[in-house]
Structures
1.
Amino acid sequence: MPNIDLAVSTRRDLNAALHALPANTNETQWHVANPDGAHALAAGVNAPVTIEIDGHAGYYCAGMNQQATVIVNGNAGVGVAENMMSGRVHVKGDASQAAGATAHGGLLVIDGNASARCGISMKGVDIVVKGSIGPMSAFMAQAGNLVVLGDAGEALGDSLYETRIFVRGTVKSLGADCIEKDLRPEHVEILTALLNEAGVEGVSPSEFRRYGSARGLYNFHVDNASAY
């Protein structure tokens, strides 16, 4: 198992080694020590490996991830899993703003809370936050699922497209064109699968409310001008 100590090696050394991995690599378990909040850790990885970061990560950790499993044993800064395409990113602490921003696929799990704009412009990723999320989360979110076991801040789902939002706690306010919708059997199935994949136990899908787009802003209409 490769062990990279960032007190000795550089972040560039780490990412260069990860980027050089072939698709059939047998170096599948990586451990990163002493991250000390460094930015862009394990960014741009495209290999079926597991990378465990033992401590806090800075901005854009696991950005553009493909295939890899990245585990952060601490908190993560702005833009964790930003533009992720596939794989899994697991933050065992809290995440700062824009977690999972523009991500196209894969699963992002945050054990703690996520700050503002969680899931902004998400394009197919699944995000499970076991704590609460901040304001303007899922802004202009286009596809995928956002699951929140705690509460949601102001303007949830503002200018939402087709992302499904499930919140177990309270929602401070909904953004423009975001409304509560029925939790149908197909949504219970999706939610059950995501809770299981995120390792959430003892929580029933029936405890959640579903929010989605009212589809009133898809096309410009003068009656909606004040909402643009």
Note: The helical segments are 11-19, 185-197.
2.
Amino acid sequence: MLRMPGKVARTPFAVSPTPDDGVRLSDRRIWDEAARPTGPAPEPGRRYTRHEQASGRHLIDVHDHLRHELAQVRALMEQVIAGATDPATARSEINAMTMRQDAWRLSAYCASYCRVVAAHHTLEDQALFPYLRRADPRLAPVVDRLEQEHQAIHGVLEEIDRALVAHMTATDGQDHLRSAVDLLTDTLLSHLSYEERELVEPLARLGFI
């Protein structure tokens, strides 16, 4: 079927934010999820081009990568705590890494992952969030909250680093390490879902390049 020149196909919004499953591993809470602000509701009947929806899809793809890497961090934590020594069984699952992990190697991997998370948050704080504030001031409370959560997550990442050091020097270090990674899991997964819920549609409506 021929398309009319200049016509761009528009469809209902089809990018689905990742839901929060509500599972929490830690008894600690570093923020009140019920106090999170929400942005403006989508315009009824609004339709979007494929290009408009691409920014939200990209945000979810980046977040999915962080979720995958978080699962690797958790697996490495369990290997360190268990003292596993067989490298072959995990190679296909975690690419170049093996189950023969000691605390020093886990520390290096976690440091790399923490830098990725920090860089992602920095990009949002310095580029994306200021743009959204300008483009739609109604999003300001959401953006403010997301920035606050970024700072809280950075504090949890630093706690993991301290826990890795403690694991190498203290007999009860493994409990602190597991507790810190559980808290990171709760906070990061909750944050990523909240961010997608609030920003995926505005990214399509407002655009961001």
Note: DSSP finds five helices and no strands in the chain.
3.
Amino acid sequence: MPVLRGAVTFSRFRTEPSKEAPSDVKRWLTKGLKSHAFEPIDRRSEDERAAGFVELENAEASDFSTSNLFYGEYALFSFRIDTLKVPGSMMKAELDKWTSAFTKENGRPPARAEKNKQKLELKQLLRQRAVPRTSVLDVTWNLKTQQVQIWAASRKTVDEISVALEGALAVKVIGITPASMAQRAGIDDKALGPTAELIGMDLPATASVEDSHGEG
């Protein structure tokens, strides 16, 4: 929970409504987050991953009540990602154990169809036992400035959360970078290039002095 623990790794964005700006921002935000709330992985399916929004202080909840979502001029919530995958080594060990038992009992190794059937049954059994790996990333949304901070280090994860926000709330999520800020201010891209001082074009004289010292 980086927002409450004071971690400093985050990416900053501003948001713009794709359509007409909502008249009731809090109601709009609550409804959007609920529409893309986290849902656990169905262990009976083939899904190995689930992702969605949850409450900041309770990764099991997605009610987004006013008291759990809004803090002054901020909306604070999280994005949860669960992955559930049976390790290949575990599957192989269990299948080898079953194969040995089958061969001993039937006096022959299992046929391919028999082995494939058992493999599917084993996968379902192991999925029921497996514990999902959970990752929870925090998001802060300033209701006045419409600026968003995503508290994640992975670029891939930040992009996934940005896309989820756009889908849930019908907004454009735009990174706050020097280039984007300059574009909004009407500054030409050419003016953002490095100066002569920055790239060291004023250093030849100094370099020659250092060279002469080296020869001495």
Note: Residues 88-106 form the longest helix (19 residues).
4.
Amino acid sequence: MASVVHAQPGSGARFDWGLTGAAELGRVCAVLVVVDVLSFTTAVEVAVARGMRVHPFPWGEQAADYAVRVGAVAAVGRRQTSAEHPWSLSPAALGSAPLVADLVLPSPNGSAISAAASATGRPVVAACLRNARAVGHWLLRHGYGGTDAPVGVVAAGERWPDGTLRPSVEDQLGAASVLDAISGVPGGLSVEAAVALAALASTPDIPAAVRGCVSGRELIEAGFAGDVEVAVQRDVSTVVPVLRQGVFSAG
């Protein structure tokens, strides 16, 4: 069992990594902010901005069955799209795909974290570089950030082949961008949040860093440079996707 100190008590904004970190912060924080820049939360922002409702779902073949049960369309892997089924985790593709009312969007990191966090009953917000400032404003406007209503910011990270967490540059920078927007919260930042925020000061060109990091290069080399270019746009959106009752819609 985790120690109480693992939840970073006494601060208004806290930071952790991955599914386990989200579970720990979810026990005590009033709201969770999930950051998965490449590409889940960027895809959520794009879809919700177009008026879609997004259902997060853990990565796996069961997503299609779940979509049938809830009357939604299931997104597929980037390489499984077709002219008849263009919906995938690709933010670039979702920007031009036909509109659907409800989209099931599976991913192994951000979506799995969001789906698990929804069980807490607390609001879960999808943040990325595109809407970090808007998310910060939304949190402050709703009174989050005091020690009695702390914010938990979770960088999703990636996975090593053995399934363990691989902390990722793009998600640390995305989380730091949210923390920057709420750095003046009355409860202050935890040490972990302050250290995460420091990444911004040492990264003069955020888009270049995301393009050049492992995850960015992986997508670019796989032929999905357009997804990276959508993801590196900073503060171009005022949309704040909030997960309530298992569905992301505009907050």
Note: The chain has a mean pLDDT of 95.
